[in-house]
Design a protein that fits this description.
The complex is a heterodimer of chains A (276) and B (285). Helices cover 76% and strands 0% of the residues of chain A. Chain A has 276 residues and is mainly alpha-helical. Chain A has a domain of 188 residues: ABC transporter involved in vitamin B12 uptake, BtuC, CATH 1.10.3470.10. In chain A, helix 1 packs antiparallel against helix 11 and helix 2 runs antiparallel to helix 10. The longest helix of chain A is centred in the C-terminal third of the chain and has 26 residues. With 285 residues, chain B is an alpha/beta fold. Chain B folds into two domains: 188 residues, P-loop containing nucleotide triphosphate hydrolases (Rossmann fold, 3-Layer(aba) Sandwich); 64 residues, no CATH class. Chain B has a six-stranded mixed β-sheet with strand order 5-6-7-3-9-10, sandwiched between helices. In chain B, strands 2-1-4 form a three-stranded antiparallel β-sheet. The longest helix of chain B has 18 residues. Chain B is globular, with a radius of gyration of 19 Å. The two termini of chain B are 23 Å apart. Classes of the chains: A mainly alpha (276), B alpha/beta (285). Chains A and B meet through helix 7, helix 8 and helix 11 of A and strand 5 of B.
Chain lengths: 276, 285
């Protein structure tokens, strides 16, 4: 079954969606969409370094993304720039340095589009193995830090005061994000990873009554998006990564449409004055 | 010498500095098991900050904060905004920072009168309901120390009495230490053992005066409220002027005011807080 490139892509995509759903919920809850973008842009620098130093691409991407996350933490504590400016600075300089480094390596001929938007043909059995082993690891660790991480998402000081190790949970969460980016890059590409993280989570919101439920639903919606997107891309001959994101978007639009009320969605968001 | 072996939390000479300014300084505070300590002071006087130092959320830039090892804390912060993106029912909220036995959850929800809200989404609650949910969550943990940051804010007078009665009852049942922060400078919970008045530093501390025996206060509060509330009489040896400077009893004016500056003979860190000042009206001598 895995001989067929389409089946391989399907299996790999489903694996990524299952991991991206729960993690994406935290990105939505914590308003980290731009942060996710920054880490995934940095992934291209990881790709360039992998070619330069003859390293495993997934490992190099993970290392560079984690490094950028740490750099961001340190800069936030010190620099006088606002967070979003720092994020933009890091995201685009990492992307630019990656592209420049790749251009210097004239002996390397790579399909840049494949890294930017994902490459369905490039998924190998090894990639599937990496996605499922790496993904299981990410989900296992996420389950282990779930309580402190979620409590700190609701209120950091409350979690801190009642004895949970918030700093450790936040730090591990950053590593998990870097891990997800590393394993999902091949499926949707560095420019669209954040979409894979936040759109299924956003679509799950109206149907969920608890955080754990929302995480499961996000994974499920992600899986449906991957299946729908890949079949769509096969049928209409469109690029795979963008097709998956479009499929997720369609599900999100359905989730906020009146149709969703038929299957028991919560009331849509009403503007609540934000006190903080 | 303020630090006692069995104290739940203690601060000695603790202070927080932000960009060269001491927001609060020289705070001594001890909460012992079963004791109710009320922190009062005007807005911006450093009450919440002091509580956060005691809880370990903020590290004091000066002085020491100690907590008993293995202390179970129930914390009700001043305010929490729950984002719409967070699906969170009251029931799930009760287990936020740790697993709590279902019987404890039931009992806490019963005691705070929110049993009917079990499946409600937290962000749809009214201010008063949310305050009670927060309290229920904190007590379901059966804490050794309950820290309440302005639990009665935004609650009307009757609600305030009811909430204080509830806190007193919970305190009696759990036998926990309570650190209560109140913005009211003169009226405190009657069950309070000790009041600490803050304004960037400890201005004074002492025991509240029982009002139930006083005709005038009975008239003012009503008989039901009078058994719940007590009056705290301030005895400051200095006055905080509107421009932030401080006038001392000896008439001198300084920019700052903190223990050990020579103006606070009776509030220096080495002195234990006075426990009873007015035996003729006090609840206990």
């Amino acid at each position: 079954m895995l001989d067929d490139f389409f089946m391989r892509a399907l299996v790999a995509g489903i694996g990524v969606a299952i991991v991206a759903g729960p993690l994406g919920c935290f990105i939505v809850w914590r308003r980290l969409a731009y942060f996710g973008d920054t880490l995934s842009h940095a992934a291209l620098l990881g790709v360039a370094l992998a070619f330069l130093l003859q390293l495993n691409i997934t490992l190099a991407v993970f290392t560079v993304s984690a490094g950028v996350a740490l750099a961001l933490l340190m800069l936030q504590a010190r620099a006088s720039l606002s967070s979003d400016s720092l994020l933009g600075l890091l995201a685009h300089s990492a992307l630019a340095i990656g592209l420049v480094v790749l251009a210097f390596m004239t002996w390397v001929r790579i399909d840049l589009m494949g890294f930017l938007f994902g490459d369905i043909l490039a998924v190998s059995t090894t990639d599937i193995l990496v996605i499922y082993i790496g993904g299981a690891l990410v989900l296992g660790v996420l389950a282990a830090i779930w309580r402190p991480l979620f409590a700190a998402t609701v209120n950091r000081e409350l979690a801190d005061a009642e004895g949970l190790n918030v700093d450790r949970a936040n730090f591990i969460f950053m590593l998990l994000m870097a891990g997800v980016i590393a394993i999902s890059m091949k499926i949707v590409g560095v420019l669209l990873i954040t979409a894979m993280l936040i759109i299924p989570a956003a679509a799950a919101r109206r149907f969920a009554s608890g955080p754990e439920q929302m995480a499961l639903l996000a994974a499920l919606i992600g899986v449906v998006s991957v299946v729908g997107g890949l079949y769509g891309s096969l049928h209409w001959d469109t690029p795979s990564g963008p097709s998956i994101v479009v499929a997720a978007l369609v599900l999100f639009i359905l989730s906020i449409s009146p149709l969703a009320n038929l299957i028991g969605a919560n009331k849509p968001a009403r503007p609540v004055s934000d006190e903080s | 010498m303020l630090k006692k072996a069995n104290a739940l939390v203690s601060l000695s000479g603790a202070g927080i500095e932000r960009s060269g300014r001491w927001l609060v300084r020289g705070v001594d505070l001890v909460v012992e098991p079963g004791e109710i300590v009320t922190l009062i002071g005007p807005n911006g006087s450093g009450k919440s900050m002091t509580a956060k130092m005691a809880l370990g959320i903020l590290k004091p830039d000066e002085g020491v904060a100690d907590r008993r090892a293995g202390l179970t804390v129930g914390y009700v912060p001043q305010r929490i905004a729950i984002d719409w993106t967070l699906p969170l029912t009251v029931e799930r909220f009760m287990h936020l920072t740790g697993w709590v036995e279902p019987e404890e959850v039931d009992a806490a929800m019963e005691a705070t009168g929110i049993a009917n809200l079990r499946h409600a989404e937290v962000r749809t609650l009214s201010g008063g309901e949310f305050q009670r949910v927060m309290l229920a969550r904190a007590i379901a943990r059966r804490p050794d120390l309950l820290v309440l940051d302005e639990p009665v804010q935004g609650v009307d007078f009757t609600g305030e009495i009811a909430l204080y009665d509830l806190i007193t009852e919970i305190h009696k049942e759990l036998g926990c230490g309570v650190l209560l922060i109140s913005h009211d400078l003169h009226v405190v919970m009657a069950a309070t053992d000790r009041v600490i008045c803050l304004n960037g530093h400890v201005c004074c501390s002492g025991t509240p005066t029982d009002v139930a025996s006083s005709e005038a206060y009975l008239k003012l509060f009503g008989s039901r409220a009078a058994s719940t509330l007590a009056v705290y009489e301030h005895r400051h040896d200095h006055t905080h002027l509107p421009d932030g400077r401080v006038r001392h009893a000896d008439g001198s004016i300084t920019d700052h005011c903190h223990p050990g500056d020579g103006h606070h003979g009776d509030h220096a860190p080495s002195h234990p807080p006075e426990r009873s000042r007015s035996p003729e009206t006090g609840r206990e001598a």
